[in-house]
Amino acid sequence: MPAVTVPDLTVLPRVPAVSSAAQQRPVKAISTAPEGFEGEGFPVKRAFAGVDLRDLDPFIHMDEMGAVEYAPGEPKGTPWHPHRGFETVTYIIDGVFDHQDSYGGGGSITNGDTQWMTAGSGILHIEAPPEHLVVSGGLFHGFQLWVNLPRVDKLKPPAYQDLRSSEVGLVASADGGSLLRVIAGEVGGVSGPGATHTPMAMVHATVAPGGELVLPWRRDFNALVYVMSGDGFVGPDQTPVGPGQLAVFGAGDAIRMSAAQTQQERYAAGLDVVVLGGLPIREPVAWAGPFVMNTKAEVAKAFEDFQAGRLGQPVPHGDVGGATA
């Protein structure tokens, strides 16, 4: 159950009703995320696997982490690792994750918090469950999204944003039956707290069983809907979708989605989705491991700089350090 909820949706501002003249975006493709393991072995679903980068632009990669109920001693994270050329957005729905980076950024995020790290010219970071969660076990569920940076911003100094759940923009659907949590961008006149280099929107929405959500969407943005849980339908033709599936939309002014009236018991809350859109960068992408650049030569230089220690050094827990020049 998502941590950020509202007992009475009628007190929230509402997304304006979409004009009947607005063009609903058609569904271009539906893909199903394969499951795998990341870092030291925590389970993930690769939400964008097999999708053309031209349809994802400005996004690169997204993992759904869990949901998993860990037994005592089981929670796992990632070791120290580098990034350059893009931003990582880590959104925790349930559970706790600690972040630390070589520029002194970091802290704990839990139950609706987000950490937005701009890797820029290069950074090392580590993500791990806190010791008390390792000891106790418990529910863990979240996402990590990679947002590309345009060429002009790829070598900017690293930066870090700590976005608390209390800062998330909250808005209801036009009919008052769906809750939208706006993490970045602007939807229905409500803005999220995330500051972005690339114009984009990121929304976590819950559509009640039998409910419908029609979102006005910038025509110059792409549009993606990833289903975390629940059974539903997307697009003007109401194409069926379910957990672990990504809908890629074509051009238009609005995104339509609805939750099936009858849900499995474990999906009683309805259709739970992440809605993403952004202004395509339309630049060459050279991507290898933890580096996303414009050319293969730039990726090779990133590996060289990492191996030479120029992306920083791991920082002892609790210390504030800085990357080397």
Task: Kindly summarize this structure in a few lines.
With 325 residues, the chain is mostly beta strands.
**Quaternary assembly:** single chain
Count of extended strands: 26
State the helicity in percent bands.
Answer: under 10%
Q: What is the CATH homology-level superfamily? A: Jelly Rolls
Structural class: mainly beta
Helix-strand sequence: EEEHEEEEEEEHEEEEEEEEEEEEEEEEH
How confident is the prediction overall: mean pLDDT?
Answer: 89
Task: Describe the SSE topology.
Blueprint (H helix, E strand, L loop, with lengths): L26 E6 L2 E4 L3 E5 L6 H4 L2 E12 L10 E3 L2 E9 L1 E6 L4 E5 L3 E5 L4 E6 L2 H6 L1 E11 L10 E5 L5 E4 L5 E7 L1 E2 L2 E2 L8 E8 L4 E5 L7 E6 L2 E3 L4 E3 L3 E5 L4 E6 L11 E8 L7 E3 L2 E3 L2 H12 L18
Antiparallel strand pairs: 1-22, 2-3, 3-4, 4-11, 5-10, 6-9, 6-11, 7-8, 7-10, 9-12, 13-14, 14-17, 15-16, 17-24, 18-23, 19-22, 19-24, 20-21, 20-23, 25-26
Family: Belongs to the pirin family.
Organism: Knoellia koreensis
InterPro entries: Pirin (IPR012093), Pirin_C_dom (IPR008778), Pirin_N_dom (IPR003829), RmlC-like_jellyroll (IPR014710), RmlC_Cupin_sf (IPR011051)
Question: Can you tag this structure with a few keywords?
Answer:
3 helices, 325 residues, Jelly Rolls, seven-stranded antiparallel beta sheet, mainly beta, single chain, disordered C terminus
